[in-house]
């Protein structure tokens, strides 16, 4: 064990009071001791050979410590973040309640001020959703599917918050169109996310989203009186035509790439 201790102390820095470093040294020493006991139990009795064999299994203790320290730091940040968001949620809701009551008693407009409470909570939920999206995006690509789901939910939550404000406070006609706009924004946001994160089969989603997006625009413009329902419906077939254009451009581009690859292959 003395040789193990000497090796650990020589390979790693000596920083008294560093809890993480102490824990790592203790863990490595325990692993070495347990490993030595296991190998010795199999019949290897030469102490020097045994110690050299165990030490050879730990060629880069500084690198191992760096990874261990980074993992510990990440776990500590995660705990702080969780604590911040839990306390922040409680504090935000209490502050929101105070603002809601203050404005309500001051204006006596209880039929409208409820939006402060509801929209405030919805926007805080949106914030938490986007925190989750950021975390999932930084993880393996498999988890980005869930990030896209959260992104869609986040966009719709924001749209509902705007809809409630327009309906209860502004008394805007056709406020429900904000929700339809939220659906269109959801398609646009997911398309942007796909492009930024370079998702596989992105073109399939683009081809599906283009007509869906323009269909939502048709409803919005038609209901708002900005576009006659007829012949405004032509916008939908035109979106399908846009799909055809996208497919044609991709085919031409891929054909060009194939020719360049073949040319370089023949040159080599």
TrEMBL record:
This is Uncharacterized protein. The chain crosses the membrane at residues 82-107, 113-133, 145-170, 176-196, 203-227, 233-253. It comes from Candidatus Scybalenecus merdavium. The lineage of its organism: Bacteria, Bacillati, Bacillota, Clostridia, Eubacteriales. Keywords: Membrane, Transmembrane, Transmembrane helix. The keyword Transmembrane helix applies.
């Amino acid at each position: 064990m003395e040789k193990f201790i000497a090796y650990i102390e020589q390979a790693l820095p000596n920083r008294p009071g560093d809890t993480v470093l102490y824990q790592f040294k203790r863990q490595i020493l325990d692993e070495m001791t347990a490993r030595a006991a296991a190998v010795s139990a199999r019949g290897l009795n030469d102490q020097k050979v045994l110690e050299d064999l165990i030490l050879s299994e730990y060629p880069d203790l500084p690198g191992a410590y760096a990874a261990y320290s980074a993992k510990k730091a990440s776990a500590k940040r995660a705990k702080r973040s969780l604590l911040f968001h839990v306390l922040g949620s409680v504090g935000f809701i209490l502050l929101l309640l105070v603002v809601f009551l203050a404005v309500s008693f001051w204006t006596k407009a209880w039929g409208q001020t409820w939006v402060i409470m509801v929209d405030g909570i919805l926007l805080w939920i949106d914030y938490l959703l986007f925190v989750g999206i950021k975390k999932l995006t930084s993880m393996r690509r498999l988890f980005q599917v869930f990030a896209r789901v959260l992104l869609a939910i986040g966009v719709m939550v924001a749209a509902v918050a705007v809809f409630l404000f327009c309906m209860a406070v502004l008394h805007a006609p056709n406020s429900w169109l904000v929700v339809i706009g939220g659906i269109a924004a959801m398609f646009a946001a997911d398309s942007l996310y796909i492009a930024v994160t370079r998702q596989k089969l992105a073109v399939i989603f683009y081809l599906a989203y283009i007509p869906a997006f323009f269909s939502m625009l048709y409803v919005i413009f038609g209901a708002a009186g900005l576009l006659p329902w007829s012949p405004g419906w032509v916008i939908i077939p035109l979106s399908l035509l846009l799909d055809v254009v996208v497919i044609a451009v991709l085919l031409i581009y891929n054909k060009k790439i194939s020719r360049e690859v073949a040319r370089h292959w023949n040159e080599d």
